[in-house]
Amino acid sequence: MLSPSARPAIERLPASRIREVANAGLGRSDVLPFWFGEGDETTPAFIRDAAIAALAAGDCFYGHNLGLAELRAALAAYLNRLRAPRVALGPERIAVTSAGVNALMLAAQALLSPGDRVAVVTPVWPNLTAIPEILGAQVLRVPLSNCDGAWSLDLDRLLDAATPATRMVLVNSPNNPTGWTMPQPQWDALLAHCRRHGIWLVSDDTYERIAFDTADGLAPGVLGQVEADDRVVSANTFSKAWSMTGWRLGWLVAPAPLIEQIGKLIEFNTSCAPPFVQKAAAVALEQGEPWVAHVQARLRTARAALLAQLADLPGVIAAPPAGAMYLFLRIAGASDDSLACAKALVREAGLGLAPGVAFGPEGEGWLRWCFASTPQRLADGAARLAGYLQRQRQ
Ligand SMILES: Cc1ncc(COP(=O)(O)O)c(C=O)c1O
User: Fold this and answer.
1) Is the C-beta atom of 206 inside 6 A of ligand 1?
2) Residue nearest to atom 11 of ligand 1 (CA)
3) Is the pLDDT score of 374 beyond 90?
4) pLDDT tens digit string along 52-75?
C-alpha cells in the first residue's frame, strides 16, 4: 500500500518548537507565559464595536477578492500619510489579505517557482523561511551578527548572497525575534541592489510601528522610496499595532500588475477576507492612531522595565532591542541548548519563554521573551528567572 504521507517538502517542515515548550506547560495554571508574540490587551472597543455594527447590518457575504474598496482606499491614505512615498500609493497597489502570514504566502505563491533562490535575513520568525520551502524554493540564510546581545547586519553579506540568480530577498525589520531594525541607508542600498539585478525585495513590515529609536515609533523602511513598478512587496498586518491578532487581517503592497495576479490567488486561497472584519479595520485606520500610540508607549515602558529587572542577573546577556516586542537574551552556561533550557524554565520556574532555536540555527543559545505585558507581570517573570538561576548555582 502507498504510504499516506504528504509531499516531501511538507514532511520535512519542523513542528513548532515554541509549541513544544508551551505543551510542556499544558495544564499548569501557574506558568507565566511570554512565549507567544502577542500583547495581553483586548482589541479596543471602538474596533470591536465597528465589527459588531457591521454584523448587525448583515455584513456576512462574500466580498471582492482584493478587499473592500473602502478599506483599500483607507490603506492607501494611511500609507501615504505614514511613509509619504515618492509616488503616491493608490488602491490598485493594495490587496487585503487574511492576516500577515497569508500576505507572505500569497506573495511567495505569486513569485516563487520550485528551485528559486530566496535570501532571508536570520534568525527570523520561522514562517518566513518555511513559506518558500513549502513552495519548493531554496532558502539561503543570511545571519545577523551579534555583539554583547546587540544585533546588526553586515550589508555586504546580504548583497553578496543576493546574486543576480536570486529571485527574492526577504527582510523582516523590526525583526522577530531579535528586535534588529534595518537602518535607512541599508534599506536604500538594498533597494538599489535589487533594482540593479531585478530581484524581488519582500519586506515584512509587521512591526514597522514599533521602533524605539525614533520619536514617532516608526521604523525605517523601503516603502517611502518605492516607485510604482519597482519589484518591491510590503507585507503587513493589523495584528500587532492595533492589537488584532485573532482577527486575521493584513495587507500587501505591490506593483499593480502583481496585485491583479494576487487577486486570482486570493480566490483560490480564501476568496476574500471577512467583510465585517474589513469594516472594523477601516475604522481602526481612521480612528486608531491614539491606540497605536498607546501600544508604542506601553511597549517602551515594558522594555525598559524588563531590561532593568534583568540587568543585575548574573550571566544574563541582553541588549535593548531597537524594535518589535521581544527581548532576545542569552544565559551564560544555561541556555546553550535553548529548547532544553526553555523546557526547564517552564518545569522548574513556571516561566514560559520561546527557545531561540525556533527561529533557526542562528537563534540557538538564545531565548525570546515577549514583553507585551504589564511591568508587574514582567517583574514577576524576572523574579522567577532570578530564583531559577540562583538554584542552579547552589
Ligand atoms: C515577523 C512576523 N511576520 C508576520 C507575522 C504575522 O502575523 P499575523 O499573521 O498575525 O498577521 C508575525 C506574527 O507574529 C511576525 O512575527
Assistant:
1) yes
2) 100
3) yes
4) 999 999 999 999 999 999 999 999
Average model confidence (pLDDT) for the chain?
Answer: 96
Q: Ligand 1, from 240, 242, 244: best to mutate by most atoms within 8 Å of Cβ? A: 240
Q: What is the pLDDT of residue 146?
A: 93
Cis peptide bond upstream of 220, omega within 30: no
CATH dotted code for 8-43+290-389 = 3.90.1150.10
Cβ(237) – ligand 1 distance below 6 Å: yes
Domain boundaries defined on the chain: 8-43+290-389, 45-287
Selected from 3.30.70.270, 3.30.450.80, 3.40.640.10, 3.30.300.30, the CATH number assigned to the domain covering 45-287 reads 3.40.640.10
Strands, E assignment, 71-190: 94-97, 117-122, 138-143, 145-147, 150-152, 168-172
Say if ligand 1 is within 6 A of residue 352 CB.
no
Q: Cα–Cα–Cα angle for 351, 19, 104, nearest 5°?
A: 120
Report which ligand 1 atom has the smallest distance to the Cα of 124.
1
Rounded percentage of the chain residues whose pLDDT exceeds 90? 92
